[in-house]
Known about the structure:
- This protein has no helices and 15 strands.
- The protein is mainly beta.
Amino acid sequence: xxxxxxxxxxxxxxxxxxxxxxxxxxxxxxxxxxxxxxxxxxxxxxxxxxxxxxxxxxxxxxxxxxxxxxxxxxxxxxxxxxxxxxxxxxxxxxxxxxxxxxxxxxxxxxxxxxxxxxxxxxxxxxxxxxxxxxxxxxxxxxxxxxxxxxxxxxx
Length: 155
């Protein structure tokens, strides 16, 4: 899975084998350069999220940990665990200074984006399991796709 931000390309290696940042090639025929690698709490298949100058990595299967990284150096600002009984297949999404996560069993966690420490702002449960998609955000609304329905949450 690949993402971009701050002039870099961020990727994950399959099955928890690390996160990395690439500097795009300077010219035609040149190779991209690996700037840094992060192996602790790397995701299985989720995409890293570049949001508001930070990079968020979510290992939702082994450690159930979210890590906020400096996208320039790969050093961690903070890391915290979300818990939950079901596996977390989704990638993190963000809007309004918040990170959104959902697991297969419908458990939703909202975290503070950025900041100096891991901070859970809200937790809830949707009584409709088998969710393997990420929360989508558009027009100030959250869209949650379950196995049977599509929910739209907003003011």
